[in-house]
């Protein structure tokens, strides 16, 4: 190994160790407080914020170091502080320096007054943390709602970048890095702007606007805007997915190698990382980009989710617009239309045609209340509602006229209704007793031996079969003192029971009935 190779090996080892130390120190910072943010909630927050905003504006003008006199003059020129002195400004600067918002250095210039000679003269500069904090605050001051936009041109631009990467076998110095930055900026802009814009459509303010008449004015424009974005997603999203999946992964790796090589040529005093670590970062960013358009085994691509969210927003706006239009139509007189419809019904001679016209005109009636269950005359699921017995419900008056105080209602005589109900109950009980005596007299029978049955006989028969099948012993006892046992057919034979309203196919069970006395 030559002396040059030995020096390079030592340099590589030192960089790797420094990088490991930097990573460990970065993770340790996650658990420590940030003293640079103390000035945002301190007692004299107004003075501190004005001082640092002055430093930030001068920093933007490439003027980094300021004297206390310059800071005091700049703050007082805004006219936002009363009774503020140069001595207070000097103490505030020292406090901000203790909180690591400012760094100071001694000003070696010649003193012009006795006060300057007796007082230590310093110049101050903002720290990187404070610059980022002030930049964040400046952005927060300009935020109005979510903002964002839907730009299908960004998708077209990304597709052009990907095709350029696929078609470029070799990269000139700096070319790959510039393309990488353009690709990442466009991707970030597409993702963030689309998310912010769709989120703005879900806010309470947006929903309140959708309920007003003004929403109808720009409803078509907004819907057209969203539909164009959906069309762009469908057109360019599929091409991006196909290009990323069909291209050889080695092509993307060559591009990433060129990007890392370009980054290594740029000297940086802020951090020292190895080529391997820089490559790992770029691979991770590239995998996020690819997954956003292609998805993976467990999840679909984010393009599909974005398209679905946009379509849901379109459907939501159309629903609100329809509701506003229906509200205006609610009070319109439809006397002429109803008269025409009534004449149409009157001209029909066939009731079936009238039923069809009623179905096309009114559709299903809006249900307001459910009251009990109507009496079914048949168990057929295909029975028409016109063949059912009408269910009569008495509706109470909703009149606002109040009854006179002290007015009483007469007691109604319900003896006749009670007598009719009693006679109906006894008649039904007699029919049931007759069926039971008939089958108990038979003792045992198979399903195939039974002749045409009534609906009441079917009710008892199916009830007994169901209870016996639910019992392990296939045996039950009824409240009337009957013991019923069911025997399943061994050869799988089946029988058909004929009823008044149809035929029932079931296994050829054998049923045994006998009366038992209570023990």
UniProtKB/TrEMBL annotation:
<dbReference type="Pfam" id="PF09660">
    <property type="entry name" value="DUF2397"/>
</dbReference>
<protein>
    <submittedName>
        <fullName>TIGR02677 family protein</fullName>
    </submittedName>
</protein>
<dbReference type="InterPro" id="IPR013493">
    <property type="entry name" value="CHP02677"/>
</dbReference>
């Amino acid at each position: 190994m030559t002396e040059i190779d030995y020096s390079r090996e030592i340099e590589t080892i030192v960089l790797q160790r420094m990088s490991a130390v930097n990573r460990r120190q970065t993770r340790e910072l996650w658990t420590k407080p940030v003293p640079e943010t103390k000035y945002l909630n301190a007692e004299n927050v107004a003075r501190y914020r004005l001082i640092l905003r002055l430093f930030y504006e001068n920093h933007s003008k490439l003027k980094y170091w300021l004297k206390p006199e310059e800071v005091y003059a700049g703050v007082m020129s805004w006219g936002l502080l009363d009774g503020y002195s140069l001595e207070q400004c000097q103490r505030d600067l020292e406090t901000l320096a203790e909180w690591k918002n400012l760094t100071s250095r001694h000003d070696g210039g010649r003193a012009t007054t006795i006060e300057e000679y007796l007082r230590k003269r310093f110049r101050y500069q903002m720290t990187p943390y404070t610059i980022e904090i002030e930049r964040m605050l400046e952005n927060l001051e300009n935020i109005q709602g979510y903002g964002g936009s839907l730009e299908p041109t960004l998708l077209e631009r990304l597709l052009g970048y990907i095709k350029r990467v696929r078609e470029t076998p070799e990269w000139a110095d700096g070319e790959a890095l510039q393309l990488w930055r353009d690709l990442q900026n466009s991707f970030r802009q597409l993702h963030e702007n689309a998310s912010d814009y769709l989120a703005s459509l879900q806010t309470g303010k947006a929903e309140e606007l959708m309920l007003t008449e003004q929403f109808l004015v720009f409803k078509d424009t907004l819907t057209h805007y969203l539909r164009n974005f959906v069309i762009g997603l469908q057109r360019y999203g599929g091409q991006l997915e196909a290009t990323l999946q069909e291209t050889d992964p080695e092509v993307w790796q060559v591009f990433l190698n060129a990007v890392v090589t370009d980054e290594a040529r740029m000297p940086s005093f802020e951090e020292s990382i190895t080529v391997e670590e820089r490559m790992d970062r770029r691979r991770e960013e590239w995998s996020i980009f690819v997954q956003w358009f292609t998805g993976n085994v467990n999840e679909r691509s984010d393009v599909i989710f974005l398209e679905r969210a946009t379509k849901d927003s379109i459907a939501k706006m159309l629903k609100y617009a329809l509701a506003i239009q229906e509200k205006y139509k609610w009070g319109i007189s439809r006397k002429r239309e109803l008269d025409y419809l009534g004449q149409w019904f009157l001209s029909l001679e066939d009731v079936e045609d009238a039923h069809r016209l009623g179905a096309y005109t009114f559709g299903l009636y809006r249900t307001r209340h459910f009251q009990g269950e109507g009496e079914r005359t048949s168990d057929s699921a295909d029975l028409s509602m016109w063949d059912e017995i009408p269910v009569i419900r008495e509706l109470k008056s909703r009149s606002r006229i109040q009854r006179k105080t002290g007015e009483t209602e007469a007691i109604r005589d319900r003896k006749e209704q009670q007598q009719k109900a009693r006679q109906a109950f006894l008649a039904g009980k007699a029919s049931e007793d007759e069926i039971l005596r008939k089958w108990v007299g038979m003792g045992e029978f198979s399903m195939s031996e039974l002749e045409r049955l009534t609906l009441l006989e079917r009710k008892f028969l199916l009830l007994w079969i169901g209870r016996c099948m639910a019992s392990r012993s296939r045996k039950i006892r009824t409240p009337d003192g009957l013991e019923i046992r069911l025997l399943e057919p061994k050869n799988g034979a089946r029988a058909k029971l004929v009823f008044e309203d149809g035929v029932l196919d079931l296994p050829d069970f054998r049923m045994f009935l006998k009366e038992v006395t209570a023990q």
